[in-house]
Write a structure and sequence with these properties.
Blueprint (H helix, E strand, L loop, with lengths): L1 H18 L15 H7 L10 H4 L3 H17 L18
Helix pairs in contact: 2-4
């Protein structure tokens, strides 16, 4: 199935990344503090934005962590950009 092929492809990419020494693919790597964890430590722990718009009410806290998270997802190839199918409905931000 397509899901099984995707899972196998992901495993191959993670394995190659681990062999390349990328820390995110190394299960023994200790997580480094990120801007997100730092921002959360310096804010009200009960407030987490529910949307991009809400997060941008405090860009001083959320812009850098979001940029870093997107960069990590791009590095890990979490998604593949494709052309929007004709007639597809898109979501509003």
């Amino acid at each position: 199935s397509a899901a099984a092929r995707d899972a196998e492809d992901t495993e191959r990419r993670v394995s190659a990344a681990a062999k390349s020494g990328l820390d995110w693919a190394n299960t023994n790597a200790r997580p480094r503090p990120t801007a997100l964890s730092t921002a959360l430590a310096n804010t009200d722990p009960n407030w987490i934005p529910r949307s991009y718009s809400e997060a941008m009410t405090r860009p001083d806290l959320w812009k850098t962590p979001m940029d870093e998270e997107i960069a990590r997802m791009e590095e890990r190839k979490v998604w593949t950009l494709v052309e929007r199918p004709t007639g597809a409905q898109t979501m509003k931000n």
